[in-house]
Amino acid sequence: MLRLRALAAAAVMAAAGAALLPAPAQAAGSVHLYKIYYDSPGSDTRSTASLNAEYVQIKNSTSRAVSLTGWTLTDASRHKYTFGSYSLGAGRTVTVHTGRGTNTAAHRYQGRAAYVWNNDRDTATLRRASGSTADSCSYNSTRTDYKMC
Questions:
Q1: pTM of this prediction?
Q2: For residue 143, what are the domain limits?
Q3: What pLDDT score was predicted for residue 29?
Q4: Average pLDDT, integer, range 34-61
Q5: 73: phi > 0 → left, psi -120 to 50 → alpha, else beta; which?
Q6: Helix (H) or strand (E) holding 15
Q7: What total number of domains does the chain contain?
Q8: Among 61, 49, 32, residue whose Cα is nearest residue 148
Q9: What is the dihedral of CA 81, 85, 90, 95, to 10 degrees?
């Protein structure tokens, strides 16, 4: 009888210890900046194609859709894009283009007629609707055209 109680107690303690271990960080995931393509190919002509080749990708690495309604994306000069009613699916990426276009689930457009992201250095900041920072990504190079965050 004592032996059974000792085994039962050991099993309970082992289970409790396992429950207290932290979950892997990646299991929770996040909504974060994924890529900034800051120097669109070719000459900076301010054409729609050129403006839309400048973009920021945001990735949802969680296992659930996340509402980005009211979230903002800004550069160091405080150019701001605010998400309207929008939900980013689990494991999905959305590309926020600088120029004009028709919004879809995978592509959003700021509707600007001028470039936002500096070709040499800048900082992208993604903020939740509450104003708290979800992520930030900086670059400082003219050797490449994009930055993986």
A1: 0.81
A2: 28-148
A3: 87
A4: 96
A5: beta
A6: helix 2-20
A7: 1
A8: 32
A9: -30
